[in-house]
Amino acid sequence: MGNTNGQQSLLVLDQNYAYQTLKTHPVFGEIKLYKHSETGRKIAIINKQIFESEQHNMKQETYLKRKSYDNINLLKVLGFQKLVANDLCSQIRYLSIQVEYYENTITQFKEKFTEKELYYLIFSLCDAMDYCKQNNNEITDLHPSKILVTDDGFIKLVDNIVALEAISNFHQVKYNDRQVEYLAPEQLELFSGLKNKINQEKANIFCLGLLLSQLITKQPVSDYYLEEFVNLNLLFKRLDQKFAQYSYSNSLYTLLKEMLAHDPEERLSTKQVLAKKQYHHFVSNLDGDSVDFAEHHPPDSILQSPNSYYQEEQQMSYHRKKESVLSLKAANEEFLITDQSLQKRIDQALAESNKLLDQLSVSSPITKFQSRATINGIYDSVQNPLVQLTESRIKRLIDNSEEAIEKSLQQSKTYM
C-alpha cells in the first residue's frame, strides 16, 4: 500500500506511541490501535475504502471540515491521509482516519446514574447533535455503541462521518442482522413503506429518550418492539418503578414523556430540549463535578425579557393530547401573579387530585404514578422562581388534570 502525492493531514506518531493490535470495532469496523507509553492515551486508525475518484475528493473535503469541528461532546478527528493500494491491475483508494479512542460506551461506564448525570447526558448529546446538524452532518443513527465515555467521564458522540455506515444500527435492523432497537416509530414505518421521509431530528430525540430509559431501568429497549409497534406503556411502567425507587424528580419524568411522544409532531426538538438547561442543575461529566447552569445564564437576564422567554416556552410545549398537562411553563397571555393565592390554589389542587388518584386501578394504562406526577408537576413548577403561572393557566392545568384522571378511571373500568 502506498501514499498518494496529496498533502497529508495525518498526525505523525512519535516514538511514544506503540502499536497495540488490529481489531474489529462495532462502530468503526477494522482499526489499528495505538497507545502512548507515558500518558496511556489511545488513538485508532480507520481505513475507509472509496471507490470513485469524485467520491474520494468529496470525502477529503468532508474530513477537512470534520477535523476542524470544535465541540467537546464529539469524538475528535486528529487527522487523515489519502492512501492508494495496488491490487493486481487496479488501484484501491482509501482515506486513513485518525481518531481518539475510548474503550467504554455509555452502557458500560457505570451501573447507576444520578439525576444530575442523566441531565448531563441529555444536554451533552443534544448539544453534539445540534452542532452536527448545523454543519450539515445530521446524526442518523443514535445508538449506545456510538456514545463513548472517556476515563474521566466525558461523553464523546461518534458521528456519521467517522462511523462505518454499513454496520450502523439502522442498517443492521433493516437487513435482520440485529434485533429491532433504537428506532423511532416513524423509522419503523420507513421499513414498511408507510412513510418515505421522516424528521430525523425528532427521531433522534426519541432514541435519546430510549437511551435514558435503558440507563434507568437496565432493561434492553428491544423489549418494547413488536414488529412495527413500540410498546410505550410497558416502557413507562418500568420507568414508574425506577423513578419511585431512585426518587428521580417529576421534572425529569416530564422531559422523558416529551421526548418519547409517539407522534413526532408532539415530540421536543433538540433546541427545545437545550432550552431547558437553565432550569436544571447537572454535572460537567460523569465523574460528578457539579455545574450550576444558572451561573452561565443568570435568572435576571431571563426575567428582564419575559415576553421572549415565554414565547419560546410556548413553542416548546405541546398540547395535542388532553391528558398531557406536563408542559408547565407560563403563557404570557395575562398579567403574572405572584401572591400567596397561587400557592393555595396549587396546594388545594394537589390534595384534591391525590384523593382521586387513590381510586385508580393500577391496571389502567395511565398509571397512578404517572397521574400523580402530572398534578405534582404543577406544585413543583412554582418552586422554581423563574416560573410563575397566570390565573387562567392554573385553572386550565387543574381542569386538564382532573380530565386526565377521569379518563384514567374510565379506562380502568374497561379492564375490570
UniProtKB/TrEMBL annotation:
Q: Superkingdom of this entry's organism?
A: Eukaryota
The EC number(s) attached to this protein equal: 2.7.11.1
Q: Which GO terms describe its molecular function?
A: ATP binding; protein serine/threonine kinase activity
Keywords of the record: ATP-binding, Kinase, Nucleotide-binding, Transferase
Segments forming domain Protein kinase: 17-283
Entry's PROSITE patterns? PROTEIN_KINASE_DOM
What Pfam families does the annotation carry? Pkinase
Record has Secreted as a keyword: no
The record ties this protein, via PANTHER family, to: SERINE/THREONINE-PROTEIN KINASE NEK, SERINE_THREONINE-PROTEIN KINASE NEK2
What protein am I looking at? non-specific serine/threonine protein kinase
* Source species: Paramecium pentaurelia
